[in-house]
Amino acid sequence: MTRREGSRAASSQAELFDDHPGSKPRAIAPGAILLPRHVDGAEVWAEVCTIAATAPFRHMKTPGGKRMSVAMTNCGALGWVSDRRGYRYQPGDPESGQPWPAMPPTLAAIARDAAALAGFPGFAPDACLVNRYEPGSQLALHQDRDERDFGHPIVSISLGLPATFVLGSTSRTGPTASIPLAHEDVLVLGGESRMRHHGVRPIAEGTHALLGRCRINLTFRRAT
Ligand code: MD6
Ligand code: FE
Fold first, then answer.
1. N or C terminus of the chain: which is more exposed, having fewer CB within 10 Å?
2. What residue owns the CA closest to ligand 1's atom 14?
3. What are φ and ψ of residue 115, in 5° steps?
4. CB 1 within 8 A of CB 114
């Protein structure tokens, strides 16, 4: 199911140039597929608020002891954490000692369907990392390599303030491309692109109509 089939009537000048709701998948590189405006942002945002009511956003420490500018929480059987001991997935929230909130079935279904559209059928995420950025927050170039099997893709949903996603190569120093990510966009990284380095440039100042001074990114993973 794609979104908002019913609300196309309110077309504006901007929509002649912007991606329209549910517009076609766009291959950025082999295995890196953008699904522009693919989700209902209000629906996903409501789920994020419910998750954060149980497992609040927090600024984790890097293994080197630095506070990350991005605040994070998780849902699903496993959650990604970073602290002085390193990066890992764990079944409970270290702040509360409780399990992470369950992954909402609606979100798991969005991730599964997006992966299938991108050419990766059968994706069954067991972990979802939720990142919260404010203007100025950024995410350094990294590879996602704490998962057991890199044969599974990662599906990412963006909400709120726009971002510039930097997609590099499998080597840290290779060339990079800048990909604008907007509210309701979905990006799938799998196959040849699964181990590309990537990051997020500092978020520009702004206020989003639904989220305020905030960008949210959810990444769905198969950790085990
Ligand atoms: C972000 N995304 O967009 C951070 N990782 O805020 C990621 O780090 C990411 O979008 C793996 C696959 C897709 C992603
Ligand atoms: Fe990542």
1. N
2. 156
3. -60, -45
4. no
User: pLDDT digits over 95-107, tens only?
Assistant: 999 999 999 999 9
Both tokens of residue 183?
């509210």
CA 12 – ligand 2 centroid, Å: 34
Give the residue, 12 or 117, on which the prediction is more confident. Answer: 117
- Neighbouring residues of 175: CB distance < 8 A, sequence distance ≥ 6: 168, 169
- Encode pLDDT of 50-84 as tens digits: 999 999 999 999 999 999 999 999 999 999 999 99
The one-letter code for the residue type at 224 is T
For the chain, helix, strand, coil in percent to 5 are 15, 35, 50
Length of the chain: 224
45 CA distance to ligand 1 middle (Å): 17
Q: Is 154 in the pocket of ligand 1 (CB under 6 A)?
A: yes
Residue nearest ligand 1's atom 3 by CA: 217
Cα–ligand 2 centroid distance for 54 (angstroms):
24
Ligand 2: distance of its center to the CA of 137 in Å? 15
* pLDDT (average), residues 45-51: 98
Atom of ligand 1 nearest to the CA of 188: 13
Which pTM was predicted?
0.92
Provide the CATH number for the domain formed by 24-221 in this structure: 2.60.120.590
For residue 8 the two structure tokens come to: 């196309």
Tell me the best of 44, 57, 144, 156 to mutate to test the pocket of ligand 1, counting ligand atoms within 8 Å of each CB and taking the most: 156
